[in-house]
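Our consortium's second objective concerns turning raw sequence data into structural hypotheses that experimental partners can test. To show how far this objective has progressed, the report includes one record in full. It was chosen at random from the queue rather than selected for favorable results. The single chain below, 336 residues long, was entered without modification.
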Amino acid sequence: MRSRVTLVLALAAVLLGGVLLGPAAYARLSSGDSSGGGGGIVAAGTVPKIAAPAPAPLPPPPPTLAAGPVSVDFQGDFFSWALLDRQTGTISGSPNMAATSSTESMIKAWIVSDYLRQLKGKEPPAALKTAAQLAIIDSNDGAADKVHAAAGGSYRPSTSSTPDAVIQRAITICGLTDTKRGAIKPFSGYWSFTQMSPRDAVRLGDCIADGKAAGPKWTPWVLDQMSKVRGTTAAKDQREKSGGGRWGIIDGLPKSITAQGPVSIKNGWTRIYYDRNWHVNCLAVTSKWSLAVMLRYPAKSSLDYGAKVCASVATQLVTPQPGAALKVPQQPVGKL
């Protein structure tokens, strides 16, 4: 009896093993014939290999300003420019970018910032806030004088080479290395005669944009006013103590850059009798860069001449170039 039971169990095991092993064996046979056509059966537990799609090409970076050669057909005593990359802190520019010229109204952006920072987040009196606004958007001299005085500045004709307190704070806070008091009597102590290099001007622009100049509360307000500067070089927009200042670098930027965000600017310009020159300065700053161009050229030329030189420098630094660049007569870089 026990032997018959044992025999039955043995036969059942053989039959069951055949059923279990059959599919695995069949899979092995099928995989061995996979070279014959496209109908092979994939072995259990394997994943078919599928080629990964090629990655989509990355879009090109948006246009910006970057270091590069600049050539202008400039007729005058002084031409210098500098560009600061605000991501890396690198400054590039003309060989004489450390040479100085009078700031004129370009310094008004600092005067306003210096006053507002000292408020430590408080609101200024309405009259002074209006003066600060007009000093920037209309380059109003009288308004700038009021803000300068409120910031602790003073105008003292002197033989001293030390700038007044407002300008001295710009040197200290913004890390300026070339800036100094003007030397022309009787205007040596006046803010517009502060001597500054393009290298320091782009540092000043960066200092205003990063918040050190005006502080966290007022920096957006200052940059917004600088983006709203109004008026052209036309005679109708130019007055004795104020004038249109929306020209220069801003005119040399393509829409592909201006569409990325506000461009904050502050120009300075005066036709000065003592050296019979226009003193023209252009400053512009964005989240990516700060650019300054400073010029002195004969008073017989127009303000529009200087504005076009500033625009030309900006256009030549656009990277990548949007088609045909602004054409200017060729001249070796830095040659005056």
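The partners drew two points from this record. The first strand starts at residue 64 and ends at 65. The beta strands are 64-65, 78-85, 91-93, 101-102, 195-196, 264-265, 268-272, 277-285, 289-298, 318-319. Both points have been shared with the crystallography group to help prioritize constructs.
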